[in-house]
Structures are given as structure tokens and as C-alpha cells.
Design brief:
The chain is flat. Helix 2 packs across helix 3. The longest helix has 34 residues. The protein is 37% helix and 33% strand. By secondary structure, it is an alpha+beta fold. The chain has one domain: 2-Layer Sandwich (Double Stranded RNA Binding Domain), CATH 3.30.160.150. The N and C termini lie far apart (49 Å). 17% of the residues are buried. It has a four-stranded mixed sheet. It has three helices and four strands; from the N terminus they run H-E-H-E-E-E-H.
């Protein structure tokens, strides 16, 4: 009986402090129309659209009909060596970075964000004995970086749009 009460108490404490499991935040933004313009960042813009439309947000068909216009641009991936084996001198770990920029403009032309930088980083181990699998892993990591960057975009939109109203 005491164990149950203790468990209930701990659960109440963690929910009362605002704790949520990763991925449990809502992506509902309280705006009428949002237009997503993808200038040289098509995969990130596509993921933002997918995440927003999946939660019931209304996306505008054109920038003229939108309350807010977000432009995602200059998406690029960068891969660099993170560590090298001291014995063989061969690469053991790589670091993958996703860089992008975003603008957020109100319908009246006021910039809320201009050239805001987005950077998402992830490192991964490299096994020279499984090179074919490493290429598949690299594309999966790029997809994960895009999802994480889209989450960043949505969180920034939530903060900016709620504070600008």
C-alpha cells in the first residue's frame, strides 16, 4: 500500500513540475494561417509542413493569404571527423551537422526573425568493416537531423507567435 502511495506521489510531482517525455509536446500553434516557403531547404520545409499539418494546424496556400510567412533557407549538411584511432590512424567517429536559416514575417511585412540560424548536431561511430551499412546509417542520421531541426522550428514558432499576439 505504501509503495503505491509513494508511486502516485512521485508521478504527481513529475507531472506538476512540467516534465514531459521527449516528443510529447504539442505542435499546435494558435494562428489562422501559416505559409511555409522553402528557399533551398526543401527537405526541412517538407518536414515542418508534415509535422504541422499532422496536428491540425491550418497551412495557407499562398503567402498573400497567410498571417505569418516562414522562409526556411540555406539547408546544408556537414560531415567532419570526430575521432581517429590512435593505433591505426583510421576514422572511428564522424560528426554530422545540419545548418539552415529561417525568417518569420507577419502579414504586414514585419520581420519577427531574420536569418535565424538553426544547427543540429549528431555524432556516429564508423565501422570500416561495414561500409555499405554506414551509407544507410548516414542517410538515416540526416533524416533524424531534419526531424530534430523541424522540432526546433516549431518550438521557435510557438514562442514567437504566442509572444507577438
Amino acid at each position: 500500500m505504501r509503495a503505491r502511495l509513494l508511486l502516485i506521489y512521485v508521478l504527481l510531482l513529475t507531472t506538476a513540475c512540467g516534465f514531459h517525455l521527449r516528443g510529447s509536446q504539442t505542435a499546435k500553434i494558435n494562428i489562422d494561417n501559416l505559409y511555409i516557403n522553402s528557399a533551398s531547404a526543401s527537405s526541412l520545409a517538407k518536414e515542418v509542413k508534415l509535422q504541422l499539418s499532422g496536428t491540425g494546424n491550418a497551412l495557407a496556400d499562398s503567402a498573400q493569404n497567410a498571417s505569418f510567412v516562414i522562409t526556411i533557407k540555406e539547408e546544408s549538411f556537414e560531415k567532419s571527423v570526430l575521432s581517429v584511432s590512435p593505433k591505426t590512424g583510421k576514422v572511428e567517429e564522424y560528426q554530422m551537422l545540419l545548418h539552415a536559416k529561417m525568417d518569420l514575417i507577419k502579414a504586414d511585412g514585419t520581420f519577427l526573425l531574420e536569418d535565424e540560424k538553426l544547427t543540429v548536431i549528431r555524432d556516429f561511430a564508423f565501422d570500416e568493416n561495414a561500409v555499405l551499412g554506414e551509407f544507410a546509417e548516414e542517410s538515416i542520421i540526416q533524416e533524424d537531423l531534419i526531424r530534430r531541426a523541424a522540432n526546433q522550428v516549431i518550438r521557435r514558432l510557438q514562442a514567437l507567435i504566442s509572444s507577438s499576439k
